[in-house]
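job 3f2a | input accepted
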Amino acid sequence: MEISREHLDCALAQINPSFRLESVRRLSGRAFQLVVSTTETVATQLVLLSHSPADRLRNPDIARDEFCLLKTLKRAGLPVAQPLYLAHDHAPPYFIATYIAGSPRSAADDRSAFCRTLAEILTEIHAVDLARWELSFLPRQAEYLDAAATADKRIRHAMRRAAHRIKPGGTALLHGDYWPGNLLWQGDKLSGIIDWEDAMLGDPLADLGKSRLEMLWALGEQAMAEYSAHYLALNPQLDASALPFWDLWGAARLPHYASFAADASNVAAMRRQYDRFIQAAFDALAAGEE
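job 3f2a | predicted structure (290 res):
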């Protein structure tokens, strides 16, 4: 961790002067669990969240933005961590938030019900009222449309050919990295939605497109199809014919998929799924030109 014990002790004192750091445990590349105590017998868990150099280059204010977003979403009633302290003057910046107990889960015995629940959660995120809640500080999706320019030339070509035919689906809060691994559960109850560092404002179908590919990798093709169908049924105002375009946008943002795989055999399987996914989008966009 790039944060000194002295600085961390000062940060915790800003939250609660009686906090004493007991232990630190890495949860992921950007998250650390902090166990703090206030008495001999009482312990509290917190989470410290930082950002990669690439994320800070993309958005120098990413720590502040995620901190402010969580504050707003907590007030809006979404199950997110409560941000407690922003170390904006530290290099790199970080923030501390409440710890959400729970763990990700794969499809339950009733896969259709699980897929429907995932679609409902994403719909709830997209339904955050931007007129009521101030989120204008978030990046705009349009700033990232050119991400396709560095992707596979087939993706770049297909998106450029189709761009003029895509009707905007409105502007919503996008999670940016929505998939089962970023949902925490305690039993059958959702306890938290985590990892909001990629949040932005944009077309809700973009969130669906990117999450469809991650759903394919996590749960398989049938689950991806059921999840997509449930989401589109909940959001009939959206033009589903534009989804192949956003599928490609999502694929262009996930060229590093091999890093998700547990072993070489998984990499090969994910590559096959990725290729089938983008080919289906190519075919759908080509059919729309006829």
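job 3f2a | The domain at 111-289 is CATH 3.90.1200.10 (Aminoglycoside 3'-phosphotransferase; Chain: A, domain 2).
job 3f2a | closed
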